[in-house]
Amino acid sequence: MPITHEIFVDLPGRSYNVSVGVDILTDLGRIVASTTGSAGRVVVITDSNVGAIYADTVRGRLSDASGLCDVIEFPAGEEYKNLATYGDVMDRILALETPIDRRSVVVALGGGVVGDLGGFVAATALRGLPFINVPTTLLADVDAAVGGKTGLNAQAGKNLIGAFHQPSAVIIDAAVLETLPADELGNGLAECVKHGVIRDWALLDFIEDNAAKITSCQADTLAELIGRNVAIKAAVVSADERESGERAHLNFGHTIGHAIETAAGYGLLSHGQAVALGMVAAFHIAESRSLIDSSVVERVRKILAELSLPVQFDDLPNSPSDVRDPKCLRRVMSHDKKALGGVVRFVLPTAPGSVAIFDDVTDDQIEAAVAVLG
Ligand code: NAD
Ligand code: GLY
Fold first, then answer.
1. Cα(374)–Cα(368) distance, integer angstroms
2. What range does the domain containing 106 cover?
3. What CATH number does residue 157 fall under?
4. How many domains does the chain have?
5. What is the pLDDT of residues 36-64, one digit of tens each?
């Protein structure tokens, strides 16, 4: 099946295409060669789970088209997105038998962890190599792979080390989601709902009408879902690459969501579950400020539930008491790296498909919204 969607990310001097399709990994060599404009040397960075399934195919396709292709694998998991793994991967790249040069291309093959770490390696090896992102999770397809944020977690917090380094191309094959563990899909679905809320209310109709096909990983439907979401992310990033304005809208649901994730302790609930709860809470704050109508809140709750995402704490299999404590969540929020001088900035819905930033949300409003979660 051919590429079904081509989305242009329009950035002065750094524009690129995002290609979406089904089974397009088989054509990866040609797409990479046509993007880089030469049959050059390629280094694939992947993790142990993705590498075990796809490294041989990808190496074969890239070797056929480019000649020289090495694969560097690191252990799968968020806990490896750190300086130690970065140092190890970098040392291995710099020690390759055929040395890399500035024309060598880094291909990141994997989820958001691989894209962030592989992208940061590309940003810093030899002061910057071209980089092609081949995401393999729904979260990476619709969010992490588009926009050029690369980086690592530090001991002091998540994603505190990093660089903006835009890819030269992003190649998304919806068919690879078939092997993704079912729990991982929800992380991407929460971001899809977020995109609908902030920019495209009709996307929520599509999600609602196709919920069964989406959750059962029907590749054509996923390709359509991914294409529509990438178009939204691309438009936001093209308008505000460095997050000085509207890119912050992408944080909708993430303020309380991150606080819930942190208060619970990483690993106890997924990022998508935390963002789903954060979106519901943000909707309740908006409703309490008369920004939107309760019917809009109910619609979003219904869609999240159809996607098996939680809309209240009782939907989680185990939620430690800290996450239900509004004061604890408020404390965590003021330490968030996106809080400016301790002032928590909220992205709130103002109409179906549009949001605005507010820095005057009161502790009472936050506490009331968390209380609604149960
Ligand atoms: P992940 O990369 O850890 O992938 C999730 C799991 O799925 C891993 O175990 C991985 O090995 C496995 N996996 C991936 N693709 C697979 C496939 N097709 N088949 C089988 N297994 C597969 O997690 P993620 O949710 O993709 O990404 C989360 C990361 O993304 C976080 O570190 C987050 O900070 C980052 N992120 C970055 C941005 C950005 O703009 N750069 C945006 C959002 C999130
Ligand atoms: N995931 C938020 C951003 O890319 O800005």
1. 10
2. 3-180
3. 3.40.50.1970
4. 2
5. 766 578 999 999 999 999 999 999 999 88
